Amino acid sequence: MSDRFIVLSGCSGGGKSTLLEELRRRGHAIVEEPGRRIVQAELASGGTALPWLDLAAFARRAIALALADRAAMQQHPGLVFFDRGLIDAAAALDAEGGEPILPALAAAHRYNRQVFLTPPWPEIYAADPERRHDLAAALAEYERLERVYPMLGYEVVIVPKMPVAERADFVLGRL
User: Fold this and answer.
1) What does DSSP assign to residue 96?
2) Distance of alpha carbon 72 from the chain centroid
3) Tens digit of each residue's pLDDT (9 = 90 or more) over 116-166
């Protein structure tokens, strides 16, 4: 386990990216969401490993990318904040009826015991070319993650809805 590896997960459109940017601004290392990077690459290349076309292929790619991200950050000396990551991707594959690899991956590649979830925040939710699902799908994903992380032995910490600087203070204060 790496206590230095901190997961920020939760509801799509819940302010994770804004919070991560604030943590980066304060000097912390961040790793961008595997899913968004995959969607960007697939759209640019005309690929089909997209969550709205082939969720299983998308999740497998996200797992591989999350593992590569973890390996790349192993030697980083400070805290590393991950925008989603391995557990989110494996949970998506599991929910899609793919290979039941979530427990094994989660056991072999631990993060800090505290996982920070950004709750649904309908007032700031917005779809975009890379996030095509609606708020109802985002809520279903959030509820799945809210169940999965504790089942894997993580302590879920809900990040309050407040200005981003206060959210960053909250996360850092909990650590």
Assistant:
1) T
2) 17
3) 999 876 565 566 566 555 656 777 888 889 999 999 999 999 999 999 999
Place of tokens 């304060």: 26
Q: Which two tokens stand for residue 125?
A: 């939710």
d(CA 131, CA 116): 21
Q: What does DSSP assign to residue 100?
A: -
Domains observed in the chain: 5-174 (3.40.50.300)
Instruction: Round to whole Å and give the CA distance between 172 and 28.
Output: 10
Q: Which of 154, 160, 157, 166 is nearest to 23 (CA)?
A: 166
Residue listed under structure tokens 């997960």: 9
The model's pTM is 0.88
